[in-house]
Amino acid sequence: MISVQFFPSRTVSLYMAKTFIVRVLAVLAALVLVLQFLDALSETGNILAHPGNGQAEVWRYISLRAPQIVARFVPYSVLLGAIITYSTLNQNSEVIALKASGLSAHQILAPMILAALGIAVVSFAFNDRIVSRATATLDAWKKVEYAQIPIDHGDRTNVWTKAGEDLIHVQYVRVQGDGAALTGITFYDRDAGGRLISTTTADHGQQQGKAWRIWPARKFDVASGQMSSLGPVVLADGVKPSQFTLASIDAEGQSFLELRSTVAALKAAGRPTKAYEGELWHKLSSPLSAILMPLLGAVAAFGLARSGKLFIRAVIGMALGFTYFVIDNFALAMGNMGAYPPFLAAWAPFLLFLMIGEAVLIRTEE
Question: How far apart are CA 9 and CA 14, in angstroms?
C-alpha cells in the first residue's frame, strides 16, 4: 500500500537531508577555495600596482570577492551535491529499499527539496545583506583602480533626461538637498515627430517652481540658422530634480528593497526601468533555483546501479542543470535588452525547467 504521507519517516528524512546538505557544503567549499585562489592570483598584480597597497589590501579584496563567488556557485553546488547524494543512495541500494517500502519518487525527493528550500532562503538573505554590499564596495574600489575610495556626495556628470519630446543634457549636476544646481545645460526643442526645432544653451540652471530657470541663455534656431541671446529663461516644466540626480544603477550592488525603491524612483522620473525590473525579479528567482536542482538531478536516483548506466544518468542530471543556467542567463540578457518582459525573463526558465524536471522524473521513475 502506498504511503499517504508526503515525507518518509522522520529518521529517513533527517538522514537524507543531512547527507545532502553536507555534500552541498563540501562541493561549495571546494569550488570557492579553488576559484578564489585563481581569482586572487589574477588580480593581485593590479591591487599591488597602486602605491601603498600591500598584503592588507589583497586580503580586503578576497573578503569582498569571496561572497560574490559563494553566491554565484550555490546553485551549482546544490546540483552537484544532489547528484552525488543520489548516486551514493543508488549504489547502496537505498533507493530500492525506499521504493520497496511503498514510497513514491516524490516522497523520496521531498526531504532534499525541503533542504534545498532552506538553502534558497539562506542564499537570498546572504545575497541581500552581504553580497550586495560587498559588490557595491568592490565595484567602487575597482573604478579607482584600487586606490582609496572617494566619498560620493551624489554629484553627477554628463546627465541626459527627457521633458516630453524634448531632450536635456547637463554637463554637471550638484546635489543641493532635495534640489539640484545645473552647470552646462543644453535644451533640445523637438516637435512631435522628433525633428529638432532649436537648441538653447546656458551656463547655469536652478529649479524654479515645477520648471527650471537657466541663465544666461542662448538660442539657436534650426530653420533660420540664427543665434540669439535670451538672458534668463524658464523651461522644462514638470522635470523633477531626481531626473538629474539619479545616476546609472548597479542592480547587483543593491538589496532587494533598495532596488525596488530605485525602480519606483526611476519610474517617477520617467526613465526606462525594464532592465532593472528584470534584475529585481531575478533576485528572487536566482536563489529559488536551488529548489530545482534536486529535481533536475533526480534522474541519477532511479534505475539499477548494476545496469552500468548510473554514470550516464549522472551526466544527464548535470546536463539538465547546466542547461538551466544557460537558459536563465540568456533570458535575463534578453530581458535587459527589452526583448522579454521583466517577469518573464526572470521566471520563465524556472517554470520551464520545473516542468521538464517533473516530466523526466515521471519518465525515469520506473
Answer: 9
